[in-house]
TrEMBL record:
InterPro entries: Integrase_cat-core, RNaseH-like_sf, RNaseH_sf. This is Integrase catalytic domain-containing protein. GO terms for biological process: DNA integration. Residues 168-330 form the Integrase catalytic domain. Pfam families: rve_3 (PF13683). PROSITE patterns: INTEGRASE. Gene3D superfamilies: Ribonuclease H-like superfamily/Ribonuclease H (3.30.420.10). GO terms for molecular function: nucleic acid binding.
Amino acid sequence: MYQIAIKPRNEYDHWRALSNYWMLSPKAKQRLEWMIFYYSIGQKSVKATTDYFGISRKTFWKWKGRFNPKIIQSLEEKSKAPKTRRTWQVTDIEEKRVIELRTKYLKYGKKKLKILYQGLYKENISTWKIERVVRKHNLYPDPEEHKKSVRRLKRRVLRPKVRLHEFKKILPDITLWHTDSVLIWWYGQRRIIFTAIEDSTKLAFARVYQSGSSRQATDFLQRLVYLTNGKLKIIHSDNGSEFAGEFEKACFALGISQVYSRARTPKDNPSLERFNWTIQDEWLSMSEVGLDDIQEANLDLTAWLIEYNSVRPHQTLDYQTPLSYAQTYKPEVLPMTP
């Protein structure tokens, strides 16, 4: 890995932080590394940059021309949507008829309204025209909820989630932590166990909480960062609300990139799914403390985690412990010591 000169370091770290905040795709982040190398180690040499990354000059000049440090999303692919879009083609009489039908049948979708329209007026009308009228006059059963859904959609477009399977194709040898939350009802009391495991070494961490809010998830993240001595740079989670909000802000502040599972795809996280089962089978079912008192539960859980990481042989690691495996094959994951 190349070293960045000390003087412009803050500027380049700021670019990387912006790329994490706006959740740039892995390809866009790779293009950002081209720019950082070009302006730092490459000393603005196109040849040095293209030789180092194995890309053509044409490709580099294309993205350098687009790159704007103030708009970091400029390194994403441009939209391929058509430049010429359809304009308003609804006549006044069609608009009036659609408004009357939609007002009367507020819960009917545009396809059903189209059938009613054709049967009532003996004229053809497209579902696109019906949709335009509904949108123009805000003819929704719950207008406020519709506005919220539109805002959510816009956020997803501006900050698309990077999915784990895409990320691993580009960076297969990354140090990656998976995290999840397990809901347990303990004699009528709600308890949440946040869990985390490192992808290759199987080093694991967990902690019991009273709720599963993003604030509690943030506390768990900060403890995990401390245990890894700040070496946690990429974290994978599902699409739960506990991993948004304050958790998302904390990841940005700590310079941690977030990647997400595909919807309804538990096989994206098999190691942690297994650990979630193990923690209930080997710790909770055998614990004399249980989950009544959270502080005592965490002390008991910590003792078990020390055993899990430094004593318990793991079949997937050829019967080594996670700590001994990490010391041998992946020392950059340490120091998480017993």
